[in-house]
From TrEMBL, chain A:
<dbReference type="InterPro" id="IPR017871">
    <property type="entry name" value="ABC_transporter-like_CS"/>
</dbReference>
<dbReference type="InterPro" id="IPR003593">
    <property type="entry name" value="AAA+_ATPase"/>
</dbReference>
<comment type="similarity">
    <text>Belongs to the ABC transporter superfamily.</text>
</comment>
<feature type="domain" description="ABC transporter">
    <location>
        <begin position="18"/>
        <end position="245"/>
    </location>
</feature>
<keyword id="KW-0813">Transport</keyword>
<dbReference type="InterPro" id="IPR015860">
    <property type="entry name" value="ABC_transpr_TagH-like"/>
</dbReference>
<protein>
    <submittedName>
        <fullName>Lipopolysaccharide transport system ATP-binding protein</fullName>
    </submittedName>
</protein>
<dbReference type="GO" id="GO:0005524">
    <property type="term" value="F:ATP binding"/>
</dbReference>
<dbReference type="Pfam" id="PF14524">
    <property type="entry name" value="Wzt_C"/>
</dbReference>
TrEMBL record, chain B:
<feature type="transmembrane region" description="Helical">
    <location>
        <begin position="236"/>
        <end position="254"/>
    </location>
</feature>
<feature type="transmembrane region" description="Helical">
    <location>
        <begin position="143"/>
        <end position="170"/>
    </location>
</feature>
<keyword id="KW-0813">Transport</keyword>
<dbReference type="InterPro" id="IPR013525">
    <property type="entry name" value="ABC2_TM"/>
</dbReference>
<dbReference type="Pfam" id="PF01061">
    <property type="entry name" value="ABC2_membrane"/>
</dbReference>
<keyword id="KW-1003">Cell membrane</keyword>
<feature type="transmembrane region" description="Helical">
    <location>
        <begin position="110"/>
        <end position="137"/>
    </location>
</feature>
<keyword id="KW-0625">Polysaccharide transport</keyword>
<dbReference type="InterPro" id="IPR047817">
    <property type="entry name" value="ABC2_TM_bact-type"/>
</dbReference>
Amino acid sequence: MGSIIVSELGKAYRQYPTRWSRLAEWLLPGARPRHQLHWVLKDVSFQVSPGEALGIIGVNGAGKSTLLKMITGTTQPTAGSIRLEGKVAALLELGMGFHPEFTGRQNAIMAGQLLGMSVEELHHLMPAIEGFAEIGEYMDQPVRTYSSGMQMRLAFSVATCRRPDILIVDEALSVGDAYFQHKSFDRIREFRKAGTTLLIVSHDRQAIQTICDRALLLDRGRVALAGAPEEVMDFFSAMIAEREQSTIRQERLPNNRVRTISGTGEASIADVTLLNDQGKPIDVLETGTPVTLRITVDIHADIERLVLGFMIKDRMGQAIYGINTHRINRPLENLRAGEQVVYSYRFNADLGKGNYSVALSLSRLDSHLDKNYEWRDFALIFHVINTRKPDFVGCASLDAQLEIERPQLVQGAAADALSR
Amino acid sequence: MSMAILSSLWHYRGFVLGSVQREFQSRYRNSLLGALWTIINPLAMIIVYTVIFSRLMQARLPGVDNDLGYGIYLCAGLLTWGLFAEILGRGQAVFLEHANLLKKLSFPRICLPLVVVLNALLNFAIIFGLFLGFLVVTGNFPGWVVLGMLPVLLVQVVFAVGLGIILGVLNVFFRDVGQMTGIVLQFWFWFTPIIYPPTILPEGAAELLRWNPMVPLVQAYQGIFVNAAWPQWQSLWPMAVISVLLCLVALSLFRKRSGEMVDEL
């Protein structure tokens, strides 16, 4: 149940030189085709097995929405085929077909019917829909009085009131307040646990990396890369930074991770080392100990401004901490070709036990999207162990201090003492 | 294939009926009198046609010596023409109107024209019900012969649906169709003996009327209500055949182009 097989899928729009040529093509018997095909998606093949979650990423216009529309069936493919097994629910455009003059309840029923549910079923599910949307008495108010967030809540509740075998989610989801976003993601996770196959389009790195088993990068209508979410996301970040001229290369590290290096190359990372307080290079460190991250940068061309940033990521690729020299007002200016710069960041490794990686960026401004000299994921990997502190969980060593008071017990003890 | 269309329609019957109901309700949603307007509007129309035309303007039908004769003649033609025009007019725009829905949601698209037809039939049922009530009250009810209008109505609806879907699909690709439909409907209306009796037409024009497929239908209604005469079935046959053919053409056009349609919206 819940599998998707997409093979050699392609979508082309017909382009006619003039409006009349379509008419000519339709009416003149045996006429040659007068249109040109404009391919927006070509040779896309992938499979999603039951219970798996696949993330689809890509810049605007890469063909993500077209792909989803073909999978949900609103648009027909020009080439190739899609095989779906199981009941599909799509969260593409939430609140489609809501009528502003009708109440939330009436609209919920309409929206459900549009999804092919019966009125009895919807009446049966209505308490659950209401409960999840949490819009209170607005449920019986016309939808025109709703805020956009409330409409979202209601639409999401209706669209997910039944667990589908396949759930297709577009980034449209990222609207609504933080609370509801969490709640909706929790529901998606629940579905996933219960065996729903998930296909999700998002720009949100965190969403892709925490939910998905695999990711697929679309670029100009083709699959540019498919693989582990983190690897694909790294490639994607590099790709958007590098639209102009530079190269992207990925190296497979001994531990089977993939390192993505990209950039225009005016400056590059020559060396990166983690040092302990005696100045010795280490890759295993005790939690809470002071360390220095030393980064040597080679300048290959004259640069007017250079910002170095580093980011520590956990095993899952989630950012733990990141800072750059722009944010602490220490960018370097007017560097000359041939120069070498050595940066040392000192900090206490207040991290939980586990594996961490360091990503580095050399850029002109705060964001590497503007001008990216070099971006390097997995520039360094280190392990944190915890033998001295209490065995806490999580990645932030907050050193919580404990105080305990037991007032009733004190009274009890006093009474005991008195009676004695 | 047509079985598939039928079964998907059946599965989405809730949506179809819900849409009809919602469209009906939405018209009078924020009014004080609410559903009463569904009756007041057509009632006013019937009164205008019958009382004003027949009584005040003394308009008479040649050969009918009933005060209300002309009014009934008018209503029989106008109300049924109204049904035809509504299905056609809304049908040609239905896909454009719901462009957003079609682009974003996956559901059987044939539901949309069906909603249009059911809505038009609902409106027609109300107004025609009132008309029949009026006939009973004024003692002009033609009797059992009224049942004769059902097959005529069926032919007319099938004709309108076929034509409406064809125009609706074409309109997505060539927006001129929508503009043209309004104009053609105007000419068509005046070229059909609804306001006037066919006898006033000059010789050549009367000859041309034979090519107007709506004429036998409208005349059948007028015959039923003015003269209490059963329709002349043989005059309806060609129209019935045309209607079924149109529907088949409409379905095949719809099937062939519905995928491409979404790309054009």
